Inverse folding.
């Protein structure tokens, strides 16, 4: 369930170059590794959010989505 709550996605646009796509995939891979470490308790929330920022994730929007996911799961 934690993976669904902490879900990360790549947003693509028409006409993206191969280089842009590869860059987004690398960002997602980095963010997914951080998500796994956070879920296992190896990273604090602050460290997790810092890594997400380095991966160019909009952390404010991401945390809002997590709150929505927690509400949908009946946890909040």
């Amino acid at each position: 369930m934690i993976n669904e709550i902490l879900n990360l996605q790549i947003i693509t646009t028409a006409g993206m170059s191969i280089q842009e796509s590869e860059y987004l995939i690398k960002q997602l891979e980095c963010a997914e590794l951080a998500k796994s470490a956070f879920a296992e308790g190896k990273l604090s929330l602050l460290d997790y959010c810092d890594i997400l920022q380095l991966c160019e994730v909009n952390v404010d929007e991401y945390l809002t989505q997590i709150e929505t996911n927690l509400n949908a799961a009946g946890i909040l």
